[in-house]
Amino acid sequence: MNFLTTIPGECITYRYVVNFTALFSMKKKTTLNRIPPMTSDKTLARIAGLLYLVVIGTGLFAEVFVRQAVRVARDAMATARNIQSSEALFRSGVFADLINFVVGLPCVLIVYLLFKHVNQSLAKLAIIFVVIQTAVIAVNLLNQISSLLFLGNDIYLHSFQPDQLAALSVHALDLQAYGYGIGLVFFGFYCLIIGYLIFKSDRVSPVIGILYALAGLGYLLNSSTLLLFPDNSSALFPYFAIVSFLGEMSFCLWLVIIGVRLKSSDKLSSE
Question: Are 213 and 193 in contact (CB under 8 A)?
Fold first, then answer.
């Protein structure tokens, strides 16, 4: 008798617990939806921008203030003397390139996370291009180191005349230049794809996307000129370099100063 009389009360209690649990879960989900993530996209964008500044700085230093600075056109002996007299600077250029690669990879990963919602397949393809570019240029640094080793004091080098060693050193620098140009072909395609994703997204001004795509085009034209018309590459290099620099720097500064806007889906969920 007592057992039967307690069932209705227990049912009421059970319904109350279920309803309270459901109400608590709804409130918890609503509250969680309103809480911003620990690392917002705007913060990630600024981190990527700062990393990109390091990439641009180290790349400019290694190419313009080291490799271009020591080279003397059509004078192997003068180039060799510059390398020998600036060995510390020459080695720091190699180290700057290594920093460029290490810092660049997390940078492109963050860019992938920020713009993959536009087209994830294209974003993944861009990552593949930049990984290949990094691998090619990293291995290519061996040519730059070789140009220094040819001018060392090892005993086996005494079999060669100074002018021969200078010629071998400059030849290694030439190989490095071609390897660098080949690597930038892949980076050019990366810039084209990311520029398109930026243009199609609503997170960054489409003008930045156009400029970034033009940066990629500049890299592709520069590498194509080096491979197909090497006699004209030195004259055209500054023009291509300016276009690429402006495109990359504009994207970099935008990320650092402004960050990114919320995605449309994030705006709807926050309302």
Answer: no
User: pTM (2 decimals)?
Assistant: 0.82
- C-alpha pair distances (Å), 178 with each of 13, 17, 53, 245: 79, 73, 25, 20
26-63 tens-digit pLDDT: 544 444 344 344 468 999 999 999 999 999 999 999 99
Query: In this structure, what token pair is assigned to residue 172?
Result: 């290694």
Task: Find out whether 264 and 202 touch, Cβ atoms under 8 Å.
Answer: yes
Report helix, strand or coil for 118.
coil
Place of tokens 């790349």: 59
- In angstroms, the CA 136 to CA 161 distance is 32
Instruction: List alpha helices for 72-205, DSSP H.
Output: 76-85, 87-115, 120-149, 162-200
144 is written with which tokens?
């730059």
Among all chains, which residue has been given the structure tokens 């180191």? 145
Distance (Å, rounded) from C-alpha 118 to C-alpha 210?
Answer: 16
Distance CA 1, CA 106 (A): 71
